[in-house]
């Protein structure tokens, strides 16, 4: 292949099985796989894998002279045995990508690779797209021409003939583990860009092995956000798949009620081990929540609330919300507490609209409903629905504020979404 050659496109399904010829025209074997260098948006093919019976060789892509009906090698091209161990930052496309599930980062979903699309230019072959369409599978099976002809006769306007289901390689990430820091780091960055709810849905659609591989690639913050959107059963399974130290770090990043839900499914011994590995303040909050029934207000509440005295000002309240923003899962209102007893609340809208020097005791509004930690989730839901509350305060027997149950937790529990 020369510098003057025009750009050409190839499908992996059409390349596999092609004869590989030595420079003298004798057959070396047939193309079995292609190896690419990972870490680039459109990775180049570095070498080809050739099989002849039980013998398997590897040759650099630079040894290919022409690629038409066959792959013709240059003079002096000598095959080498395949490496015994995986090579860092190298991916065998046929073995590791073709027919595998991948994460479509842009579409935030799982897809299966039916074929791969290559761009050939200036003597180099690069992966351009993955083909997730039915037509790609038909091509792989060698049926494209007869099927295309049949569809053209019966339904000439069919989408099958017009729409190639191609995804740019740079927008997808393989799930199976692979050696090499560059590839793993690129995957982490891409996965972290997904919304946690989308990532949780993807993980729940995978089998146990695949979901563990994918979860282990997430950084602590992304893992925590994802577990908060997952069912307690899946969250528990994934926590068991990582070392206790990382599991403890993830639990510390989660909202206390979500962490308690995940821990509640673990065995007592494992639960204690993880609580011991957590920082003491977070561990204490979670341990207290574990004492309640999962279907009670105490089991659903978060203790992370903003409670201030009636003498604090609106400006001070807003400052406190900003100061604790990273630690609070949600903030709908600031609660007014006098001598540990809940006296009222102010919404964020109230605070923004008020004079910064106004005392909270002057602008507070009555709390329309409270629940105790022992109340059932149905009682919490009724209170939220009746008074149109975004959060329902949880109080003890003396009227002291101990936490709140948020509307999203109520909805998730009531509709069975978790």
Alpha carbon gap, first and last residue: 57 Å
Helix content: 25-40%
CA-based gyration radius: 29 Å
- Low-confidence region ranges: 179-183
- The chain-level mean pLDDT equals 86
The biggest beta sheet reads: 8 strands, mixed
Q: Name the shape in a single word.
A: elongated
Named CATH topology of the domain at 307-414: CBS-domain
The structure class reads: alpha+beta
CATH superfamily of the domain at 307-414: CBS-domain
Total helices: the number is: 20
What is the CATH class designation of the domain at 307-414?
Answer: Alpha Beta
CATH architectural type of the domain at 307-414: Roll
How many E strands? 21
Percent in strands: 15-25%
Descriptive report:
With 418 residues, this protein is an alpha+beta fold. Among the domains are: 195-291, MgtE N-terminal domain-like (MgtE N-terminal fold); 307-414, Roll (CBS-domain). Helix content is 38%, strand content 24%. It contains 20 helices and 21 strands. Strands 2, 3, 4, 5, 6, 7, 8 and 9 form an 8-stranded mixed beta sheet that branches. The chain has a 4-stranded antiparallel beta sheet with strand order 1-12-13-14. The protein has a 3-stranded antiparallel beta sheet with strand order 11-10-15, with helices on one face. The longest helix has 12 residues, at 181-192. It is elongated.
């Amino acid at each position: 292949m020369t510098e003057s050659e025009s750009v050409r496109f190839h499908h992996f399904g059409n390349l596999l099985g092609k004869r590989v010829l030595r420079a003298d025209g004798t057959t070396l074997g047939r193309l079995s796989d292609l190896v690419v260098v990972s870490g680039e948006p459109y990775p180049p093919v570095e070498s080809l894998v050739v099989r002849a019976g039980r013998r398997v060789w590897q040759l650099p892509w630079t040894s290919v002279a022409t690629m038409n009906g066959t792959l013709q090698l240059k003079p002096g091209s000598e095959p080498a045995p395949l490496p015994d161990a995986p090579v860092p930052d190298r991916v065998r496309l046929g073995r590791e990508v073709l027919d595998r599930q991948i994460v479509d980062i842009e579409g935030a979903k799982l897809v299966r690779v039916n074929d791969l699309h290559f761009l050939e230019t200036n003597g180099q072959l690069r992966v351009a797209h993955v083909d997730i369409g039915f037509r790609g599978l038909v091509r792989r099976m060698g049926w494209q021409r007869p099927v295309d002809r049949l569809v053209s006769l019966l339904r000439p306007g069919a989408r099958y003939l017009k729409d190639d289901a191609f995804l740019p390689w740079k927008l997808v990430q393989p799930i199976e583990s692979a050696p090499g820091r560059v590839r793993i780091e690129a995957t982490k960055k891409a996965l972290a860009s997904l919304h946690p709810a989308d990532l949780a849905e993807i993980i729940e659609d995978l089998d146990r092995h695949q979901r563990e591989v994918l979860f282990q690639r997430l950084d602590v913050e992304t893992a925590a956000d994802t577990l908060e959107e997952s069912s307690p059963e899946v969250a528990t399974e994934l926590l068991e798949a990582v070392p206790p130290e990382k599991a403890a770090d993830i639990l510390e990043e989660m909202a206390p009620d979500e962490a308690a839900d995940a821990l509640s499914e673990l065995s007592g011994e494992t639960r204690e081990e993880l609580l011991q590995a957590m920082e003491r303040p977070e561990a204490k909050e979670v341990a207290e929540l574990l004492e309640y029934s999962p279907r009670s207000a105490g089991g659903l509440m978060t203790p992370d609330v903003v409670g201030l005295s009636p003498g604090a000002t609106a400006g001070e309240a807003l400052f406190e919300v900003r100061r604790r923003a990273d630690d609070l899962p949600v903030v709908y209102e600031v609660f007014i507490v006098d001598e540990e007893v809940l006296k009222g609340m102010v919404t964020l809208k109230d605070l923004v609209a008020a004079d910064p020097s106004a005392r909270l005791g002057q602008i507070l509004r009555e709390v329309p409903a409270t629940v105790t930690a022992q109340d059932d989730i149905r009682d919490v839901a009724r209170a939220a629905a009746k008074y149109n509350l975004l959060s329902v305060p949880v109080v003890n027997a003396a009227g002291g504020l101990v936490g709140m149950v948020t509307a999203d937790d109520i909805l998730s529990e009531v509709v069975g979404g978790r």
